[in-house]
Amino acid sequence: MEVKDLKPELIWKCFDEVTKIPRPSCHEEKIREFLVNFAKENGVSVKTDKVGNVVMHKAATPGHENAPTLILQAHMDMVAEKNNDVEHDFMKDPIETYVDGEWVKARGTTLGADNGIGIAAAMAAMIDKDLKHGPLEALFTVNEEIGLEGAQNIGKDMISGTMLLNLDSEDDGEIFVGCAGGIDTTADFTYKRSYTPEGFEYMKISVSGLLGGHSGSDINLGRANANKIIARFIWECSQRWDITVCSIGGGNLRNAIPREAFAVFGVHSTHRNELQHYLKKYYQDILSEFDGIEPSMNLAVEACDRPEYCMDSETSIALVRAIYSAPHGVISMSRDIEGLVETSTNLAAVKMLDDNLIRITTSQRSSVESRKNDIAGQVEAHFQLAGAKVSHSDGYPGWAPNMKSKIMKISADAYEELFGVKPAIKAIHAGLECGLFLTKYPKLDMVSFGPTMTGVHSPDEQLLIPTVDKFWKHLCRVIEKVAES
Question: Which residues are catalytically annotated?
């Protein structure tokens, strides 16, 4: 069975179409064109703003013209992650989807259900002829995954609704009414190139097969960070023998826990056997530490030709120390909402760039604004001590829960009517665009919900098929109840 053949047909057909459109973050041109053409082909009013956000508008069905205008919101971009052994160009290749039992998956890449299924739901609502509704708007934002650019720069008067459904959550039976704010912290190291010393043996160590995941919603699961595993090994080696570091790198996106990393380094030939023995012990220690958490972890070392250059020893030592000792993971838990992470930081990526520059990308999140700034400051101070030049992004605000929200009650009542159980009302540690919408439209009443997904921001991303049916029914019932109100 193919994805387009799943039920309910309308939303799955739309999702199948979306997966065929390349849409990595910062490159939403094709999906924007697709959405604009979709609206025009179906007689739906559409407009865009200067940053590329798209808004569709659909008039109310007869008799519901006076209902509140309801906004259905999703983001156009997707996290572009793939396994190293997969050939895939996110700029031009469609996502190769398949059905595996009750799950929809992608072959070796991210699926893009975050937030492709939200796009599909909004599209389907715009063309469903049987749906009773008040005035509807569908807002599709750009570059959510890297900087929330669309929400941050949404054009004036792009939306007119007073209620908004953010379709970017990942757990059936849960309605989210708050989220964390975030900020990115970047550390740049400048190094000098030196000729690699003679008498050394050179090798590449790499870690792969980690689960990775979303740096917000998965940060509390204790998963391994590939960058820290590599840095820890290099640092421990440096405490035993003279080593030289030629290159190092790992991770990709600021909001993904790094799954893969590597380093090319050299050690004097007289220590080769000692290092091989130590590597086996290190690997067993790491496997034991993450037993039951990282079932597919792989640590490999292979000999390589002597590189021409290496990093100067002072910078390489400072760099390895800084990566190894950098804070990563949960910093504190919420005292107000049981089980909610309050503050965290993600050591996301290490990349060697041109001009002898090594850039470390990190991201910090917190539901408390002052704590967000505090952990960002701690990360800044940490890398400054290592000699790096540190900078911060503009950041984005959190979304404070409103327990008197009208759309929250409508959404919760709709779910209970349909499925006979009360949904959980929650806040999420991940960042949603809702906090930024409030800065431009302070009277918006918002909730977020969606079907169940796991492994988002990694090639393990998968979408649970039965919950998409529930998601669609829930969305339609909320739309109808708002129209009735």
Answer: 77, 144
